[in-house]
């Protein structure tokens, strides 16, 4: 058996650092060898007899210092299992004193093995801790790994850069081509191929600019001239001359040989010495944009024409109205002349109302606010109503109208009022665009599952360009400056939308200017199982059927007086007020049966006034009629919420109002005296205009 002193000599002089720890949770350093002292740069006195983790602590300022925790777990496993424990390469900084006496921790890496030492009876005496410092090896491996990673990253970045460039080229909405100085195509994207109508430029031969067909489209003196091979922006960039924003109309290489206007920009790509290595050209298709700009200019022109036309159309009826009003002011005017003058005013006001209704109609139609009340109606009856509306205009223009109706019924499911509007508009259109003494033919037929109505004329006809936009807003054929028949150029746009709301179609045909026009409307036929609904008719001005007291409240004195005079002419007692407070005072002392309230009143508006009348017992059950210039669905909903029974849009149709007042008077007369006011509140919804 060897001398124990030999074991001590072997331990002390071993070239590998070694320590002996006590077997406890907080081990004590029992001994260290010289190699370990050299590794940690400590003296024996600083370590032997000290608590391990007090003598070699963790760095309190380094959250990544896990050496103490790892070593503590390894020693605990040795004590628990009695088996040696190897630690993988572990980072364990060592505390030292730096310059100026400051405490610093130096990063160190170690491989360690912890071996339990037992006595003859198997009792654990100590733990033999052997360490090998691998700091330099770790740093060398890390440097090598970093170098490899950097090389790999550089390769990946280069590949990613090429992929990104390819992705950008393919995703770009513009055509891009990169060509080397020798004419070889280096890169090009799908948008470039799509613009030129070909599957890529050949890469085996230099680009041949003589194959490219193009014409200058920049509006300069060279506009329309062919682009010479050496004038192409890419060709000039390859010679070192950048080109920016050149407008050229190109011809594609495909069979269609389409024309496109493109915006080209090209720039040379140079090396460090300034030599041209390649050139890049970018092409942007401007065809649709230029068409849109032209369409905007055309729309702006048509808007200006429309505004001028609208001013003309409004002035036309205003002139006779003004003269008629002045004539009525003369004392010498006899009764017959008053009647004729009144008739003139009525016709012109109806014309003004028609213009305003057309404008409101197009607003409602384009915003999808038109509601179609569909019922079973015969298109022959609809046509008869439409013809009746335009007969005065036909007679004034001395046109010959021939109607060839279908013998059997043409029953459709539609809104009679709107269908009359459609056919009357087409007839009006034919009258206006046919010279005096012309011919207009109307034919009805069944075509498949549709009822068809065709309106033909021998008028001024239509060009192909006008046919394409016949159903657009403000589209009109050219007419003389007199414009005797008027019109805003919005009727056909409304007609088309109304026909579509009925599930139908409308088309137009003309052989050209001077050859007349034909409009054909097709509406699906209805199921024959339901009864027909009568077409709407207008009745004469209704007169009083029973006594009725009415109060008109409008701050417009002229409007209030005229409305009161009309109601008085129907045989009713009328009182007029021009302010909300005066109306409330009058209503408290002498309540009326019916109140016609302007919505735009000063002091309190008509909606608030209606609520006050509903809140007062004397007028709680009176009939309230809103009179306003607003007729939108939300306006009607607001008046209904305020307590109004009816909603009239200015100017009020006298026949509608007279008929409503007669119905109110009749219902009041039939009601018992104690419930007359209350009975007048219960109205069927279809009574409201």
Automatic annotation (TrEMBL):
Residues 549-665 form the Response regulatory domain. It comes from the Bacteria. One of its GO terms (molecular function) is ATP binding. Residues 668-689 are annotated as: Disordered. It catalyses: ATP + protein L-histidine = ADP + protein N-phospho-L-histidine. This is histidine kinase. It is an enzyme of class 2 (transferase).
């Amino acid at each position: 058996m060897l001398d124990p002193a030999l074991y001590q000599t072997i331990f002390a002089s071993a070239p590998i650092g070694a320590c002996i720890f006590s077997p406890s949770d907080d081990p004590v350093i029992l001994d260290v060898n010289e190699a370990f002292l050299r590794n940690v740069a400590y003296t024996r006195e600083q370590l032997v007899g000290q608590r391990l983790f007090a003598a070699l602590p963790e760095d309190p300022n380094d959250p990544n210092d896990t050496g103490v925790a790892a070593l503590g777990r390894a020693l605990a496993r040795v004590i628990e299992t009695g088996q040696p424990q190897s630690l993988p390469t572990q980072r364990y900084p060592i505390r030292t004193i730096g310059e100026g006496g400051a405490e610093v921790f130096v990063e160190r890496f170690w491989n360690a093995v912890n071996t339990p030492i037992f006595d003859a009876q198997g009792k654990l005496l100590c733990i033999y801790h052997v360490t090998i410092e691998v700091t330099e090896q770790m740093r060398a491996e890390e440097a090598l790994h970093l170098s490899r990673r950097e090389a790999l990253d550089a390769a990946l970045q280069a590949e990613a850069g090429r992929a990104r460039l390819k992705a950008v080229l393919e995703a770009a909405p513009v055509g891009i081509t990169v060509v080397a100085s020798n004419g070889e195509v280096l890169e090009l994207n799908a948008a470039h191929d799509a613009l030129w109508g070909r599957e890529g430029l050949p890469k085996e031969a230099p680009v041949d600019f003589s194959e490219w067909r193009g014409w200058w489209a920049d509006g300069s003196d060279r506009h329309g001239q062919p682009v010479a091979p050496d004038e192409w922006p890419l060709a000039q960039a390859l010679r070192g001359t950048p080109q920016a924003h050149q407008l050229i109309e190109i011809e594609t290489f495909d069979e269609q040989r389409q024309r496109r206007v493109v915006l080209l920009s090209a720039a040379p790509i140079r090396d460090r010495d300034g030599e041209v290595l390649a050139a890049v050209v970018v092409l942007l298709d401007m065809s649709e944009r230029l068409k849109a700009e032209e369409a905007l200019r055309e729309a702006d022109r048509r808007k200006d024409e429309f505004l001028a036309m609208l001013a003309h159309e409004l002035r036309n009826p205003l002139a006779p109205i003004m003269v008629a009003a002045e004539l009525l002011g003369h004392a010498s005017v006899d009764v017959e002349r008053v009647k004729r003058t009144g008739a003139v005013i009525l016709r012109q006001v109806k014309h003004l109302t028609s213009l305003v209704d057309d404008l409101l109609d197009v607003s409602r139609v384009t915003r999808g606010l038109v509601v179609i009340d569909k019922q079973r109606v015969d298109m022959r009856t609809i046509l008869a109503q439409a013809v009746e509306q335009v007969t005065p205009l036909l007679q004034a223009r001395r046109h010959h109208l021939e109607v060839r109706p279908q013998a059997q019924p043409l029953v459709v499911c539609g809104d009679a009022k709107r269908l009359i509007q459609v056919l009357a508009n087409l007839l009006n259109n034919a009258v206006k665009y046919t010279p005096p003494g012309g011919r207009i033919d109307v034919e009805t037929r069944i075509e498949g599952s549709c009822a068809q109505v065709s309106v033909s004329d021998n008028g001024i006809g239509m060009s192909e360009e006008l046919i394409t936009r016949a159903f657009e807003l403000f589209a009109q054929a050219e007419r003389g400056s007199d414009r005797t028949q008027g019109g805003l150029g919005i009727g056909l746009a409304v007609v088309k939308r109304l026909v579509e709301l009925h599930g139908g179609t409308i088309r137009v045909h003309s052989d050209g200017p001077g050859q007349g026009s034909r409009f054909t409307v097709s509406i699906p036929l209805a199921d024959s199982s339901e009864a027909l609904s009568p077409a709407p008719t207008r009745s004469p001005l209704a007169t009083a059927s029973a006594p009725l007291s009415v109060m008109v409240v409008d701050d417009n004195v002229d409007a209030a007086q005229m409305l009161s005079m009309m109601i008085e002419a129907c045989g009713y007692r009328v009182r007029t007020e021009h302010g909300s407070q005066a109306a409330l005072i009058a209503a408290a002392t002498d309540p009326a049966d019916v109140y016609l309230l302007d919505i735009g009143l000063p002091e309190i508006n008509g909606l608030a006034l209606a609520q006050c009348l509903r809140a007062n017992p004397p007028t709680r059950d009176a009939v309230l009629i809103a009179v306003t210039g607003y007729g939108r669905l939300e306006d009607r909903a607001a008046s209904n919420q305020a307590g109004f029974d009816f909603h009239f849009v200015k100017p009020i149709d006298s026949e509608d109002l007279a008929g409503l007042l007669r119905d109110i008077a009749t219902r009041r007369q039939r009601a018992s005296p104690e419930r007359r006011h209350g009975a007048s509140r219960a109205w069927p919804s279809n009574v409201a205009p």
